[in-house]
Amino acid sequence: QVQLVESGGGLVQAGGSLRLSCAASRSIFSINVVNWYRQAPGKQRELVATVTSGGSANYTDSVKGRFTISRDGAMNTVYLQMNSLKPEDTAIYYCNARLPPFGFWGQGTQVTVSS
Questions:
Q1: Which candidate, 4, 13, 20, 15, places its Cα nearest to that of 110?
Q2: Distance of alpha carbon 21 from its chain centroid, rounded?
Q3: What are the beta bridge partners of residue 71?
Q4: Where are the beta strands (DSSP E) in 25-101?
Q5: Which region holds residue 55: left if phi is over 0, alpha if psi is between -120 and 50, else beta?
Q6: What single-letter DSSP state applies at residue 54?
Q7: Distance CA 2, CA 106 (A)
Q8: Whether the Cβ atoms of residue 84 and residue 15 lie closer than 8 Å to each other
Q9: What would the mean pLDDT of 82-91 be, rounded to a whole number?
Q10: Could you tell me which of 91, 33, 95, 41 has the C-alpha nearest to residue 62?
Q11: Would you say 20 and 63 are in contact if contact means Cβ atoms under 8 Å apart?
Q12: Are 56 and 43 in contact (CB under 8 A)?
């Protein structure tokens, strides 16, 4: 089991940057996969970025080259650095941890990008 707490959301102008944090209650290296999802109003939840326990990262096409997922083992935290933000990035961003057969979610953090 793991508890996740996201932070770092806020309001930013288009072209700006934010860094989201996902603090875990256990070593992040013991978690098979950590994901960042987002959900915009009226839309389905979308997988944005993934990092495995081995450090492999993947991104959805719409954020490639703009977002970077990273880990800090000492802090048990996974980050999502978001640069060149666009209004279409506006959503609630959720951290998700996969510990098969279970998945755990944080409470989410709101990101709003103004044009």
A1: 20
A2: 7
A3: 78
A4: 33-39, 46-52, 57-59, 67-72, 77-82, 91-99
A5: left
A6: T
A7: 10
A8: yes
A9: 98
A10: 91
A11: no
A12: no
Provide mean pLDDT across the span 63-87: 97
Confidence of residue 41 (pLDDT cuts 50, 70, 90): very high
Q: What is the pLDDT, as a whole number, of residue 72?
A: 93
What's the gap between Cα 16 and its chain centre?
Answer: 17
What the block records as the tokens of 25 is 């209650």
pLDDT tens readout for residues 50-69 = 999 999 999 999 999 999 99
Distance CA 105, CA 108 (A): 8
How many other CB atoms sit within 10 Å of the CB of residue 70? 14
Return all residues near 42 (Cβ < 8 A) that are at least 6 apart: none
